[in-house]
Amino acid sequence: MPILLIADDHPLFREALKGAVARGLGAAEIHEAADAASLFTLVETHPEADLLLLDLHMPGAEGFGTLVQLRSQHPQLPVMVVSAHEQPSVIRRALDHGAAGFIPKSSDSETLIQAIRSVLDGDLWLPADLGDTPGVSPREADIADRIRELTPQQLRVLNMLAEGLLNKQIAYELSVSEATVKAHMTAVLRKLGASNRTQAVVLASQLTLKPQPLPPDDA
Q1: Which of 16, 24, 149, 219 is the most exposed place for a label (fewest CB within 10 A)?
Q2: What is the pTM of this model?
Q3: What residues contact residue 42 under an 8 Å CB cut-off, 6+ apart?
Q4: The domain 138-207: what is its CATH number?
């Protein structure tokens, strides 16, 4: 019986996914997460999982940062992105950052099951021929390497910082002290090679769906 993890913040879509899996695969063990924090806990709890179906946008995660870190910390877990963002550039970036497949949310259940079966069999699944769609730039690849060095908690702190939260708000959301948040930020700046919080946010934005322009002198 395959073990599938579903990470999506929309309950109705998770139910639709579970229904499609039940109809197409029969018996399957399914576990769910609605945000990035619960996703990392879920993956740690089920190291034997066969596949993760990952949305690119949910609380605590926007873009490819979560995918990058999951592939770094849990390389044995295939991740298939299930997203409403269907542009060829987004699909190519997801694959370059380690996704084993990409399925648009507009796909019908038959296509979804075909994609899941393909990835479970160890194959790569693409919704269409991407042709000469360019992959990630060397700069984005370098920043992804830096993001891989962060712990899940450090990534959460960085994502909350990008959302405009203050240290005391981040501390409240994570149920930690402000001193702990400051310690995480120090580690984040060091690992990203950023000189300040603003630069760290700009660097992290390179893994979002709409990256911010980088300053020309960034290294």
Answers
A1: 219
A2: 0.86
A3: 5, 7, 31, 32, 33
A4: 1.10.10.10
